[in-house]
Amino acid sequence: MTMIDLKSSVFTLTGTPKSQYILTILNSPQATPQSTTYYSGGFSIGKELSFTLESVHTLALETGKRIDVKENASFIINGTHTTINSAGSEYGGQSKFRFSSNTWKKQISSLNLSSGARAEFKNAFFFIHDGTITMQKDSTLAIQTDVIRFQRSLSNNGGEINLKGNTYIVGSPIDTKPAGTGQKNTAAFFTSIDGKVAIEGNLYNGGTTPIDSSQNPIFPAFDPPAMGGGSIVLKGGSMQVSGNIISQSGGSSSNEGGLQNSNIELYGSSLKAQNLQNQANSLLLFGAYDNKMGTFEGNIQNNGNVLVDLGGIKLDGDYQLVLGTISGITSDKIELKNGNTGFSKAILDFKNDEWSGVVKLQIDQNAINAFKQGLNEGERGILESFGDEIFIFEGATTSSLSQDVSTFKDKLKTGLLDSSYLFIETMKSHSTILDLRPHTLTFDILGGGIWGGGNGGIGGIGMRWDDETLFEIGSLEMSFWGAYAYGNFNQSLPSFNLLGISEFKNQSHNLALNAYTNFIFQESETSLSVGYFASFLASSRKTQTPDTFEILTSRYSHHYIRANLAQGYRFSFSQFFTKPYFSLNQALHLIPSFSEGDSSYAYSSQKYCTYDLSAMVGIEMGYEISNLYKIYANVSYEGMIYNSSDFVLFTSSHTPIAFKTPFIHRVGVDFGGYVGINEAFGVNFEGNFKYMGKDFYYLGGNIALKYTFSSF
What we know:
Elements: E1 3-6, E2 11-13, E3 20-24, E4 37-40, E5 43-45, E6 50-56, E7 58-61, E8 66-69, E9 74-79, E10 96-99, E11 110-113, E12 118-129, E13 132-135, E14 140-150, E15 153-157, E16 160-169, E17 174-177, E18 182-184, E19 187-193, E20 196-200, E21 203-205, E22 207-208, E23 227-235, E24 238-241, E25 244-247, E26 263-267, E27 270-278, E28 283-289, E29 292-293, E30 295-302, E31 305-309, E32 317-320, E33 322-323, E34 326-327, E35 334-337, E36 344-351, E37 354-363, H1 365-373, H2 377-385, H3 398-429, E38 440-452, E39 455-470, E40 475-492, E41 500-521, E42 524-545, E43 548-569, E44 571-573, E45 576-591, E46 594-595, E47 604-605, E48 608-626, E49 629-643, E50 647-650, E51 656-659, E52 665-676, E53 681-691, E54 696-708
InterPro entries: Autotransporte_beta_dom_sf (IPR036709)
Protein name: Autotransporter domain-containing protein
C-alpha cells in the first residue's frame, strides 16, 4: 500500500484556459495494486482548467482544508472501487473520498464550486463529506459511489447535482469537549435554491449512516457512523429520486441533544420519488416560492407532521400538492398556515378524514382593491412593493395593514431623510458664537448624543479664529470656524404586524465651515452668519415580512448652505448683559440622487434641492466675573416660514412617496463659560441642547483651548 502525504500543502493548478491535466497514481511494485491513500491539504483549480486524479484508492481531505474549483473549471477524481486491509491505513478498507472536520477546533473542510464549475467523484464505495459544500449558479456536482453521505451542510444556488448511489443526509455530531470526550447530536442541512437534483438510489433524511464493512477486528478503519437528523429545503427547482425517501429522527443516546428530528420543506419546488416515508416527529412542509407551491409526485406514508403554508401565494385557486396515494395524513396530522385573513379564505380538502393533497384558496379581490383605494399614492406604493401576497398572511386586515404602512412610511422618512438633517443640526449647534475674544485661536473637542425618535451621537474636533476691527462709529467682530465629526444613528423600531423596518442604522462623516460677522454700533448689533455643512452617510435598514428579510444599504450625502441675518440690542448692567435678537435664516439643501439597490423593497431618490426660509427669536445673556472668568447662555426658538419642495422617494415600480421637511420647529439652549489661565491662555466649555421636532433631542458640548495673541 502507498501513502501520499501532502497534508500541509495545497495543490494549486494555474495555466492556460481550456488546458487539461491528468495525475495518475502509480503504486510501487511492493504495494497492493490500486491501494494508494492520498492525504491532501486541499486543491485549487484555476479558471477554465480541467484536472483529473486517477487511480486513487482513498482521498482524505484533512480537517479544515478545502477544494476550490474556479469559474468553468473541472475537478474529477476517479477512484479504484477496491478493498484493502484496513490495518494499513486509518481510512483503509473500502475505497472512499472523505472530507474531515474538527468541530472543537472549528476546522471545517469545504468543497466550493464557482459559477460554471464541475466536480466529479466516481468509482468508490463511499463519498463522505463532514464539512460544507457551496455551489454557485450553473455549477455541477456529480457523485457515483455506493454510499453518499452529507453530514454537515450543502448549499446549492442554481447548480445541478447528480448522485448515483444511496444518499444519506444525516448530521454528524459536533464536539463539545476536546478529543471527542463530549459530543452533541446535530442535523445535516441540504439546501437547493433554483437548482436541479437527481438521485439514482434511495434517499435517507436523518437516521444512521452505513459504514465501511471491511473492518479489521484489530485495526479497524476510521469510519464512525453519523447519527442525527436531516433537513432538506428546496426553493424552486426540482429533485428526482429513483427510489424511496425515508425521513426520520436520529442521534446517539450517549451524546447531548437527544434525538434530532428531520424535515423536508418544499417551497415552490417539485419533488418526485417512488415512496416517501415521513416517520414519527418528522415534518413535511409544502410552501410557496416565486408564487408557486411545492409539490410531491409519488406515494406518501405519513406518521409524522405535515404543514401547508400559503404565505407568498397571490393567486387563488385549487392547488394539487400531491400526485399519488396518501396514507396517514389525517386532520390531526396536518396544519394549514396563512390564507385565512380579512382578504382571503383557505381550506384543506379531505376525503374520509384523509387529506386529498389539495388546498383551496379564495382571494377577495374586491376587498383588496377597496383597501388600496383608501390609501394615498405613497402609501399605496409602499404596500404594492411587497406584492399582493401580503394579503394572504395571517393577521392581514385593513386595520393591521393600514397601521403597518403608516408606520413604515414614517420610519422610512426618519431613516433616510431625517437622520441626515439630524447630523446637520447637531453640527450647527456647535457653531453658535457666544464667547468671541479678539485675536484668539481656539482648538476644541466636540461631541454629543441624540435620543428620542432614535439614538446616536457625534464626536469630533474643530478650530476657530476670532478677531475684531474697530471703527469710529463702532466695531466689527469676525469669527471663522471649521470642524469635523463622526456620527452614528440607530433605531430599534417598534413591533409591526406584517411588514415593517425592524432596524435602521446610519453612520456619517460630517464637515462644517462657518463665517460669522457682527457689526456693533453702540447697543445695536447686526450679525451675518454664512456657512457650509455636509454629511456623508452610509445607511442600512432591515425590512421584514412574515416570509422575507432583507438588509438594504445606500450611500448618499446631504449638503447645506446657510445665510442668517440677525438684529439684536444689548442691555448692559455692570458685569451682566442681555441681548434679545431676531434672525431671518435662509438655507439651501442638496441631496444628490441615490438608491438602495435592485430589490423590490428598495427605494431611490432623484436629486433633491430645496430652499428654506425660517425665523428665529432668542435671547443671549452673560455675566463677566472678571477678565478671566465668564459665564453665558442663549435660548432660541426657530420656526419654518417657507419650504420650496418636498423630498421624494421612489419605489422599485417608480411610485413617488413625498415627504415634508422634517423640522418645522426648533428650540435651542446653549450655555457655557470661560476660565482664563492667564491673559493669553484659557479654557472654554459649552453645552448645547436642541429640540428638533418629531421627538428628536440633542445634548452635546465641547471643551476648547483658547490662545489670544497680544501682538495684534
